Amino acid sequence: MENRPIKLYLLTGFLGSGKTTFLKKIMAVLADKKTGILMNEFGKISVDGILLKQNGIDIVEINNGSVFCSCLKGAFIDALIAYSELPIEYLFVEASGMADPSSIEHILHTVVGKVKGKQYDYQGAICVVDALNFLDQADVLLAIERQVAASNLIIINKVDLIEEPVLQEVEQRILTINPAAEVLKASHCEISTEFLNRKLKKTEYTSFQESCNTSANRPVAHIITADGVFDQEVFGDFLQALVPWALRIKGFFRLTDGWKQVDVVGTQIEIKPTAISRPVSELVVISAQGLPALNEIYANWDKRFTAKMSLQ
Fold first, then answer.
1. Of 180, 184, 182, 183, the residue nearest 204 (C-alpha)
2. Where does the record place the CobW/HypB/UreG nucleotide-binding domain (predicted)?
3. Pairwise CA distance, residues 180 & 137, whole Å
4. Does this model's pTM top 0.70?
5. 32 or 110: whose pLDDT is higher?
């Protein structure tokens, strides 16, 4: 067992598609295996990392950007080299939602020869697609198209939230981008995990040495922190006002009936109870609209709350 290479999977998918949900399910299946997780979050606050750690899952995090951008690529390579020294059988790399994974094979080739432990056996890329928002997102974000194009297995998630004609359109769009990939449909990322017993289907995708992720075109992750207890209805109204300005909103906020996990994807707003508590309430607002989005956050907060908040 010790001489076998580490099976490496890359997990991609746009913000809120369901990557962390999928990863939780995989970790339950591999509970008796030695498995590593390298998580890449776009914001400085690791919301998904907190959720995984709550389930007793150990992870290594690289935050505040994409590991395929030049700003973090070195840290990614260093992490892969460090993981190769550990006695693990599997390594899952969960890329940030904005990641363009085009350069993954080039990066892995860079790692070869530098590892001090076992080599990696790259199994392929798994892409989780948000069926509800995919068609709108793919029209304006190159990274989403490249995530699909670079994947070996594509999970069309949230099929329970759309009608059959829309699902057919999503599937056709995916197959136009990547006709060779294996495509599965799911709700809440419920799929068979038999793929773990085989290598993922090969595709004809031509890998690029560089991804489209650069420090110049990256969206901004605004971090809201606030102390106190907030009214849920007013807070929900605040989130609704930010929807047009945000690609994704997530975090943990203390409301009148306890701590809540906040998850906003597209126009869907979810505020649900959580056992997680933080020193202060924290919210990550990822936006590509720059200063106007920043102004909207300030204006909508001041309109509804008297408590002070800090915005990074």
1. 180
2. 9-184
3. 22
4. yes
5. 32
